[in-house]
Amino acid sequence: MPRIDYFTEANSVEAVNARMGEATDPRLREVMASLVRHLHDFVKEVGLTQAEWEVAIDFLTRTGQLCDAQRQEFILLSDTLGVSMLVDALAHRRPAGATENTVFGPFHVDGAPELPMGSCISLDGKGESCRYTGRVLDLDGQPIAGARIDVWSDNSDGFYDVQQPGQQPTWNNRGVFVTGPDGRYDFVGIKPVSYPIPDDGPVGHMLTRLGRHPWRPAHMHFLLTHPDYERIVTHLFVAGDDYLASDAVFGVKASLIVAYRPVSQGDTEWEAAADFVMVKPPSR
Ligand SMILES: [Fe+2]
């Protein structure tokens, strides 16, 4: 009789991975074999108890049950564990001088109105006004024409329009601008405020148990696209914000922190200037 290697504590990884069929897609085989290895190593390293396993199952169940078209608790989990930023870092190893990426976040909406340069995107009249200016450049410092700049931020209460339908005007603090030959952009929004990520679900509970807060430092979102260049998903962070060093989703990079300067001394009208540098996609 052929010897059968039944499942044991010692051979658990091999026992599971040996079941994969011959025809399994090679990349899926690589990913799953590694996942099983790390998962089993983790269970063995911490000596996971049955009660802890039940807590984990319940946590993941509640995380899934909270997800719908408006709420994505699993992305929040990925964000707060640093996985979203890590995957983004692996995918965007850009040369020095190029604008760095950060998290996309859950509040982007396709179809925001395309506006002439100089337009104001704040429609609720709340908050401290801020004029955003700068250029979209290539790595040689040459202006890029036809770059599409999609911007969005919270309002001065710390909520995006989609979080308060009926309360905020549609497209409040959102707009799309397309650069001309000089690569310049120019629009008026607000000086954004820091806000907590949704913390009334399992991820918020996890943060509390870990002694972490749910706050993100104030930021303006930017999505830059152009047919000839790699897409940039990034933010401008407000210099001096209390949460720059402890962003709940690890999105802050030093190069993305921008000084918001008062238009005149003691003023509550602000200016923020930043250039964006796009790179060609890696050739395949
Ligand atoms: Fe945001």
From TrEMBL:
Domain of life: Bacteria
Intradiol ring-cleavage dioxygenases domain mapped to chain residues: 126-277
InterPro entries, sorted: 1_2-HQD/HQD, Catechol_dOase_N, Intradiol_dOase_C, Intradiol_dOase_core, Intradiol_RC_Dioxygenase
Statement: the UniProt record of this protein carries the keyword Cell inner membrane: no
Keywords assigned: Dioxygenase, Iron, Metal-binding, Oxidoreductase
Pfam families named among the record's database cross-references: Dioxygenase_C (PF00775), Dioxygenase_N (PF04444)
The protein's required cofactors: Fe(3+)
Domain called Catechol dioxygenase N-terminal: residue spans: 25-99
Gene3D superfamilies (UniProt xref): Aromatic compound dioxygenase (2.60.130.10)
SUPFAM superfamilies (alphabetical): Aromatic compound dioxygenase
Record-stated family: Belongs to the intradiol ring-cleavage dioxygenase family.
Name of this chain's protein: 6-chlorohydroxyquinol-1,2-dioxygenase
Taxonomic classification: Bacteria, Pseudomonadati, Pseudomonadota, Gammaproteobacteria, Oceanospirillales
